[in-house]
Specification:
Number of helices: 8
Structural class: alpha/beta
Strand content: 25-35%
Radius of gyration: 20 Å
Order of helices and strands: EEEHEHEHHEEHEEEEHEEHHEEEEEEEEE
Distance between the termini: 34 Å
Largest sheet: 9 strands, mixed
Length: 328
């Protein structure tokens, strides 16, 4: 399986964090965000993975090289101007062509599902339907009302996209940032910038092509577009990790094991702490609430962290007092 992980973008809502790293290189549970789509797509047996880049490309390259294993061919597709989701696929075509089906995901697509075989089942459904495309969808509050979504017919095929119901008896779901595409898509991709949903798939649906919606109703899609949402998502995952009975605990641990650095965790309620083994914490450091500390980070004497995340290679100075912050 060949895959493209779309990482071109500015991450403006996540500033000032993205002044130093592109959003896909920002860490979530000590893993660059691009590591999450890589983990899920690797369950399909990846042979090649492409990351497209634009803003701060070297930070994406470094994060990808850290995550991608040696048995997978790693490619980069740079965009001097952002080409959009369809244009990103078109620009990466020479590394993606050659197989009947290829995968595309957003680099900040942090999703958790209790079924580790989710994408194998999605691929099987895609092939059985002989679909032009298959989109991973999930329920989300406000979708189809405040948030544009994917409108799905009773037979599971997509009727359209956006805020307006295109047909009676269609149901709206959130596009969870992952898709499978048939090689039949190539003649329909225009040169240059385009949106894969609205500019490419919507006209094909109108012409009778089948686009499958693969519903994952237990999937959790995490919003990570700003610091508050990033912290809330972090707390949610640490909550699951602290409860072995949670259906999400096992898969989060598997992701940490497969693509994360060595770590130790203290999960005594209500304190939840995920600390990279290579982090250095002074004996007098005070940790309250949930705390994540990245690789080679250093927390100096008498510093206090409360409900905060310290990313890799950061030094928190002595006596600093941080509450609900992401430090990069």
């Amino acid at each position: 399986m060949r895959a493209l992980i779309l990482s071109a973008g500015f991450g403006e809502r996540l500033r000032p964090l993205t002044l130093k790293r592109a959003k896909p290189a920002i860490e979530f549970l000590n893993i660059p965000m691009l590591g999450y789509p890589y983990f899920w797509l690797s369950t399909l047996g990846l042979t090649d993975v492409v990351f497209n880049t634009h803003y701060l490309p070297e930070t994406v390259r470094q994060a990808a090289m850290k995550i991608v294993t040696s048995d997978v061919n790693l490619h980069f597709s740079h965009e001097d101007q952002i080409l959009g989701s369809g244009g990103g696929i078109w620009n990466s075509r020479f590394d993606l062509m050659g197989e009947k089906t290829f995968a595309v995901a957003n680099a900040d697509g942090v999703v958790i599902d209790p079924d580790l075989d989710l994408f194998k089942k999605m691929l099987s459904a895609h092939e059985d339907a002989d679909a032009l495309a298959s989109l991973l969808v999930c329920p989300l509050e406000g979708v189809g009302q405040k948030i544009p979504g994917v409108w799905v017919r009773r037979d599971g095929f997509v009727a359209g996209f956006g805020l307006t119901r295109p047909e009676p008896e269609t149901y709206c779901y959130h596009f969870a940032s992952y898709m499978l595409l048939s090689d039949r898509i190539w003649p329909f991709l225009p040169e240059g910038s385009s949106n894969i949903l609205y500019d490419v798939l919507q006209p094909r649906i109108a012409q009778g092509e089948r686009v499958l919606a693969f519903l994952a109703d237990q999937l959790t899609w995490f919003e990570t577009g700003n610091q508050n949402d990033l912290l809330a998502a972090t707390q949610s995952c640490l909550d699951h990790l602290s409860r072995p009975g949670s259906p999400y605990c096992g898969v989060i641990r598997e992701i940490l094991h497969r693509v994360g650095p060595p770590y130790h965790m203290r999960s005594s309620l209500p304190k939840k702490r995920l600390i990279a083994d290579s982090a250095l914490l002074d004996a007098n450091v005070k940790l309250d609430g949930f705390v994540v500390v990245g690789e080679r980070a250093k927390i100096e004497a008498n510093a206090r962290l409360t409900d905060s995340v310290v990313q890799s290679d950061v030094t928190v100075p002595a006596s600093a007092d941080l509450t609900r912050q992401v430090v990069i």
